[in-house]
Amino acid sequence: MDIKIIDKRIIIKFKYDKEKVKKIRKVNGRVWNGEEKYWSIPYKAKSLNKLVKLFINEDIDWEKVFKFTLIDFNSLYKVDTDKEKNKMYRFLTLKGYSEKTKKSYVGHLKRFLQYYDVKTEDLTKEHVEKYMFHLLQDKSNSHAFVNQTISSLKIYYKEILNKGKILYNIPRPKKERKLPNILSEIEVKSILNNIKNLKHKAMLYIVYASGLRVSEVASLKINDIDSGRMLIHIVQGKGKKDRYTMLSEAALNILREYAKIYKPKEWLFPGGNKGKHITERTIQRVFKNACENAKINKNVSIHALRHSFATHLLEAGTDLRYIQELLGHKSSKTTEIYTHVSKTNLGNIKSSLDKILNS
User: Which end of the chain is more exposed for a tag (fewer CB within 10 A), N or C?
Assistant: First the structure.
C-alpha cells in the first residue's frame, strides 16, 4: 500500500484486494478516483485513526506517514481492537463456547476497548469498574447486559492479558427479576391462524408445541423429528446439552404437509444460502408479522411462545419437573418463574372489590 497526503486529502493506492476494499469502505468520507485508481479520505485525525486501526497489520511505515502531518501517531493509536478480538474469539473457540456466546462476548470486548483505547498492558480493574458505571448510569443498560460484559472481560483479563484474577471481586449488579410476557391460548391460536406461508406456519407451530428456543428451531434437521416416539431431539442446545422434547400431533401434521411440498433435504428449515439453515432473525420477523396480522398489542418477542408453552402446561396440571426437562433448564429455579405468571392460583382469588359490589 502507498499512502500520501496531497491537498488536505490522504491518498491510498493498492492493488485490488477484496478485503482491503471492504476495510477502506468503513472510513467515513472515503472517495474512489476511478481515473487515477486511488482512494482518498479527509485529512482529519478521526479518519487517520480509523485508517490505522483497519490496516495496522499491513507493511506500512506509519511513522513516516505521520511525519508530514500535524497529528502525533503515538497518541493517536493505542490498541489494535481487531487483533484483541481475534485473540478472544480463538480462545473461546478452543474452550468450546457456542457461536452465539462468542459473538456476544467479543462484542462486549470490542465496546470496552473502543471506550478507552488505551494500551492493553495499562488496563486495570478500575477501568472495568468505571466502564460498568458508564453502562449502568449513562447508557441505562440492563443488569443482565452488564453482568455479561463482566463475564467477557474476566476471561479477557485472565486468559488473554494474563492479569490473573484481578477482576475476581469486582461487584456485579443484582440480577433483575422480570416476569415474562405470556400469550393467552386464544392469542396463540390467533397468531398461528394469521400465517399463510406453510413453512412459516410450521416453524411457529414447532416453537409453541414443543417450547423450543428460536435458535433450536432454526438448526433442526429432518432426522431430529422422531414421529414414531412423538419426540424432537434437540442436539447441542443451550449449554451444549442434548435433550428430547414433545412433538404434538398438530405440529406433526403441519410438518408432513410442509415436507410434502417443500421437500427439505438436510435442514428441516433451509435458508436462502445453499447448505445453510434459516436464520433466527427470519423466524423472529415471521413471528412479528404474524402478531401484527393478529392485532396482538402485547410487547412480545418469539420467545413468548416458549414462555406460553410452559405456562399453559403448568395451568393444565403438568408437573413442574417435567416442564423443566422439556425446556432444558439446568435449574428448577429458572422454571419456577412460570408459577408467578400462571393464572391457576391467582385466578382462584376473588377481588375484594367484586365481593363488596356484589354483596
Answer: C
DSSP lists the bridge partners of residue 12 as 3, 39
Assess contact for 284 and 204: CB atoms under 8 A: no
Half-sphere exposure for 58 (CA within 13 Å, toward CB): 18
> Given 1.10.443.10, 3.40.50.1000, 2.115.10.20, 3.10.129.10, which CATH number is that of 185-345?
1.10.443.10
Percent residues over pLDDT 70 in the chain: 91
Domain ranges within the chain, ordered by starting residue: 2-76, 81-160, 185-345
Looking at per-residue pLDDT, the higher value among 266 and 239 belongs to 266
Q: Which residues are catalytic?
A: 213, 238, 303, 306, 329, 338
Could you give the 3-state DSSP secondary structure of residue 245? strand
Q: How far apart are CA 216 and CA 238, in angstroms?
A: 9
Label residue 117 by pLDDT band (50, 70, 90): confident
155-170 burial, b if ≥16 CB within 10 A, otherwise e? Answer: bbbeeeeebeebbeee
List the alpha helices (DSSP H) in the chain: 18-24, 45-55, 62-67, 73-76, 81-94, 99-116, 125-133, 143-155, 185-193, 198-210, 214-218, 249-262, 280-293, 303-315, 320-327, 332-335, 343-346, 352-358
Q: In CATH, which of 3.40.50.10170, 1.10.150.130, 1.10.1040.50, 2.40.30.200 is domain 81-160?
A: 1.10.150.130
Residue 126: the pLDDT is 93
Tell me how crowded residue 111 is: count the other CB atoms within 10 A of its CB: 15
The tens digit of pLDDT for each residue in 265-292 reads 999 999 888 889 999 999 999 999 999 9
